[in-house]
Amino acid sequence: MAQFDQFGPRRRISDGISAKTTRGAFGRTWWGKQFVDTIESIADAGRLARGRTYARGGQVISMQMRAGRIDGDVQGSQVEPFSASVTIAVLDPFDLDELVSAVQESPGMLTELASGSVPRALGPRLLLSSASQLDFDCSCPDSGWPCKHAAALTYLAAEQIDEDPTRLLTLRGIDLDALIGVVEEAEQTVDPDDHFGDRTVLPALPEPAFVPASDDLEASLLRIALRTADVEERAVRSGMNELDALYRRMGGT
Predict the structure, then answer these.
(1) Domain with 32 in it
(2) Tell me, what's the pLDDT at 112?
(3) Does 187 map to a domain?
(4) Which pLDDT tens digit goes with each residue over 93-128?
(5) Structural domain includes residue 198
(6) Contact predicate 233/81, CB 8 Å
(7) Is the peptide bond before 146 cis (omega within 30 degrees of 0)?
(8) CA 75, CA 17: separation in Å to the nearest integer?
């Protein structure tokens, strides 16, 4: 087990991502609270406490959430920040079918999700329930589960889930638009006299929105690659910002 006193105090930064929850428990909504409660019931309490300190202190430099993962760079006690990740199990095909069936039986759930709320009936299907659905990893020398760097990502993710529950869907491998499409398709009636769909009126194709390549970029992996080339951290941050600005100018955003 790592001895924390051998690493020294954390290096404070001024431009990190700080938690909005400055005191008290994390989890403002019922689903955010349950997300936090589940993790706190199965993970190391001491490291989680240090993770809360890191989240509130703005030690997280960057964070991305996608299907099954939360990735980020967290400034610790060493010169270079650590690359941490939280892995969350996506729904398997059976559980996904169960979720779709539940929503089809009560389409009003889609309205709740789209308006920024998680229906309580979907809680057991979307929220974590055991340690087998969760894992942590970090480039730091601490072998704890989790280390404080990964724990900091977890608490910031809980705040984002509070504000936008579709991020919870994303973590579990669900796209809200695709879910809406499946439900609407099931509600459509078939014309028995139009076997080949000749009279079917298809909707207009959507205009694809421009998405900068940097939004789909594995930012943490690029940072690691740049550091491997002995690029200074200040130059890494500057390069990432310039790359993002370049892609957005190319897209006219």
Answers:
(1) 4-179
(2) 92
(3) no
(4) 899 889 988 988 887 898 899 899 999 999 999 999
(5) no
(6) yes
(7) yes
(8) 11
Domain membership of residue 185 (yes or no) is no
- What is the pTM for the complete model shown? 0.71
Number of H helices, E strands in the chain: 10, 4
Output the six-digit token pair for 244: 């993002």
Count of alpha carbons within 13 angstroms of residue 86, beta-carbon side = 31
Total domains present in the chain: 2
123-127 CB contacts, 8 Å cutoff, 24+ apart: 123/30, 123/31, 123/34, 125/91, 125/95, 125/98, 125/99, 126/31, 126/99, 126/168, 126/169, 126/172, 127/31, 127/34, 127/35, 127/38, 127/168
In this structure, are 162 and 222 located in the same domain?
Answer: no
Domain finish residue from 158, 179, 200: 179
Residue located via tokens 């969350």: 88
One-letter identity of residue 83: S
Q: Which amino acid is at 162?
A: D
Predicted pLDDT at 241: 74
C-alpha 36, offset from chain centre: 14
Mean pLDDT, the chain, rounded, equals 85
Exposure letters 165-194 (e unless 16+ CB within 10 A, then b): bbbbbbbbbbeeeebeeebeeeeeeeeeee
Look up residue 158 and give its two tokens: 């809980």
